[in-house]
Amino acid sequence: MTFPRTRCKHCKGKLETGQRILHPACIDDFAVAEAARMERKKAKEARAAAKVERAETRRRKEAIKTLPKLKKEAEREFNAFIRARDAHLPCISCGAPPPDLSGLHAGRDAGHYRSVGSAAHLRYHEDNVHAQCVHCNQYGAGRAVEYRIGLIARIGEGRVVALETNNTVRKFAHDELRGIRDTYKAKLKEMKC
Q1: CB < 8 Å & 24+ apart, contacts of 168-175
Q2: pLDDT, tens digit (0-9, with 9 covering 90-100), for 4-14
Q3: Across 82-168, where does the E strand assignment appear?
Q4: From the DSSP assignment, how many helices (H) and strands (E) are in the chain?
Q5: Is the dihedral of CA 116, 122, 124, 129 positive or negative?
Q6: Using CA atoms, how far apart are residues 126 and 112, in angstroms rounded to an integer?
Q7: Cβ(155)–Cβ(128) under 8 Å?
Q8: CB–CB of 169/125 below 8 Å?
């Protein structure tokens, strides 16, 4: 058994007997309010559909990324993590103190002990990469001898020898590079918190 409405749907005022849903004076206002509500509902549905479409577009773009593109993205996140990890440490090669500059790299590079050209499998190895001043990394050819001395002081001779003798051949797959990128992005975010 249903009971008749006792309040106006628009103004919430008490209805008299015989009136069904609205007061006669509220009909126009209710129609305008209902039209506005329907417009808001349509706009909300359109935003939700656009959000789903953007997510699908992102997913498709991610699926067709090439190996070089993924390597660049993984390297960017990995190098940013290395620079943040070693932000308070001096240059691994020359011992220069960390710069007080602000900016993208703040005067520091993520320098590889064994270069990417000679040991590509160690490209994303944390023991192989440390913060290095731009001068040592780019203009001093990495300063391998000084780098090795600083590396032994920082991680120990056993781990340095392990890096030097690691000659395994390794090819990075698409999913592996995505995992590296996402892992170091999360580590960097966690470090900044």
Answers
A1: 168/121, 169/121, 170/120, 170/121, 172/67, 172/71, 172/74, 174/65, 174/67, 174/70
A2: 667 777 777 77
A3: 108-112, 129-133
A4: 6, 2
A5: negative
A6: 9
A7: no
A8: no
pTM of the model: 0.72
Locate 121 and state its tokens: 């499998």
Per-residue pLDDT tens for 46-104?
999 999 999 999 999 999 999 999 999 999 999 999 999 998 899 898 888 887 655 54
Write the secondary structure of 143-182 as one string of H (helix), E (strand) and C (coil).
CHHHHHHHHHHHHCHHHHHHHHHCCCCCCCCHHHHHHHHH
Spatial CB neighbours of 192, under 8 Å, sequence gap ≥ 6: 84
Burial of residue 26, with CB atoms counted within 10 A of its CB: 0-12 exposed, 13-18 middle, 19 or more buried: middle
